[in-house]
Amino acid sequence: MKITFHRYLAHAMALALLLAPAAFGANKDMVQLQTQVQALQDQLSRLQQSNDERFGAMRSLIEQNTDTVNRVANSLDAISHSLQTSTADQGGKVDQVSAQVQSLHDAVDELKARLAKVSKQLDDMAAAQQNLQAAPQGQPAQNPQLPPQGAQAPPPDVLYNNALSDYNGAKYNLASQEFADYVKYYGNTDLAGNAQYYIADIEYKQGNYKQAVQDYDKVIEQYPSGNKASAAQLKKAYAFLNLNQRDAGVRELRALIARYPKSLEAQQARERLNSLGATTTASKPSPNRSR
To answer: Does domain 152-280 have CATH number 1.25.40.10?
Structure first.
């Protein structure tokens, strides 16, 4: 019996000696794994701090650029007012200066749209990062909103800039299609009214005055507060005059003056009415005529 007991004891001791290195190795691997996890957590913390600093710097830069663009817009408004009061007797020069100022307005509007887009992208990135951090372990973070699937359109700034470049390069058919796509896909953005205006202006340049009247009217009706509304009404009047519809043209010029009395386009409308021998307001019928 003693021999058997000693034999079992010897086997147990031998087994313990065999398992000891394995247990030591497993414990060593666990410590190493914990060290690696801690290193990853520290790295993630540093990355988070770096991202927060970058987001803050980007937001500050966007705010500074937005302030600068707003100051430029205010300066353009002041220039427009000054031109209105000082160039009334300059004849044809008013049209040229007005077009130059309008081009500057377009550039400012484009910058505003770009800044708004960058600001939104920054907000989306910050929200996605917060979702990623807040997601429980083992569960994927929610995907940020994606554009609807279907017909793929270029980003709004790319599409608009391409269209404007083709317009300035007299590639009118291509520009018209690009502006139409912009209105179709991004009709609620700040530059949609500009895009619709250029569609009408291309028709006007190509001598399609009847279609131009309809397209200018869309700018006036759908984007009345846009910076192209007064220009659209002026060109709509010109289109009527080119169609030999004098009464309609005069009526539109008078409506422009009543609607946007302080605009450069109103000054141009007054000059055009003067050249047509028409007054800026319709004359009231004489009481004697009703008798």
So the answer is: yes
